Fold this protein.
Amino acid sequence: MKKLARNKSSAFRGVFAIVTLAVFWITMAPFCAEAALQGSAGNTIIRNRVTVAYKDNNGVVQTPVTASVDITVTTVAAAPTVLSFTPSPGSTDGTGATQAYTVWIRTNSNGPGAITFNTADGTFTNIAAGTAPNVPGAIFLGSTVIDPTDGHIGIAQTVANGANIIFNVPNDGGVPTDAAVSGGATGDLVINALKLNDIVYIYSGTTYYGPFTVGTVTDPAVGAGTTAAFGSVQLINNTGSPIGPFTPAYGWEILEAKSVIVTVTQGAVTDPTIAASWVTTVTATMSGQNGTGNVTTNAHSGKLTVLKEVSTDGTTWATSGVSAAPSASLFYRITVTNTGLGNATTVVLTDPQPVYTTYTGGSAKRATGAAVSYAAAPTTLTDLNAADDGYDFGVTTALVATYSIGTIAPGAANAVQLFFKVTVN
């Protein structure tokens, strides 16, 4: 009997061991199935929790015992993308002008990270090298993924203008965030560096949807359950048009985009009548991964020519060979033409009264474009008020006609003609 009892006891222990082992593997199985997929968000907490249920020797159910191990998914750097230069291409008028570009940057990294910059001038055409472009300071871009718990997965979505969509995202465990936000703790309303008013895109692996503006962010404590508590990010469509349709899937990325300012300053244009340009390269770097973008800036410089003519009747004009008797009227026509490819700015014309003549008050007129007679000039200019039309006689400088023309655009159609009369003494 003792031997039989011992055999029964051994058998019971064997069955108990098998049952216990079966409970162990049944409990473990779902967590093995939820192992991290490639592209899981950086800082995602993968929790492996085992539960062992058992009874005592008398068959009484005991409190299960548990143990868990957490690991954190690392952030994998990805080459930043230089999205756009605004405006592109840029243009500057006049030697030494500066063009400021707003450059948008995004990266497909699975988590947040710092982006640094380098800039360089490249090819120059018909222009000397200018001041080296400025190098923007570093920025910090956030990134996460749509969590497998999200209810939008597999369902086509279109987000109307002014509407929003809220995605579950993995808990980041309170990682440090970009310098704009203090903390680095759960509950700080920042998750993987995504925070209120950030600009983000949804990325499917092939297509970007957005841009969205980040609204409410929840960043709960990690918790002690079988999985770490997930957070959420609200994405608001402020674009003015619907975004979508798109069908979210687990692992789709939510990527932040930020802008920096790059300024470039031109050198001297070699020949204002020939197109001039230069190339600026912006390199964005995340943990050794580089992305570049180029923008061409066009330089346009004005080149003025001036023609002075005289006439005794206001109709027939000459540059020489004209004679007049005392008391005769002389008509002067001054034509200023921009033969360059860019605007000529702050143009000021000065013409002293000819010796042996008397200026005819109220005689100044203006025309634009093709040369016309004095009578056909459409605009009469005032002598005494330089502020009203840019012209005065003897106000800015005694016995001098002064005409502040301002800007003259390129081409004969924009040529400016100034007329006035004098009487031979």
About this structure: The two ends are 153 Å apart (CA to CA). The CA atoms of residues 187 and 219 lie 5 Å apart. Residues 1-38 have pLDDT under 50 and may be disordered.
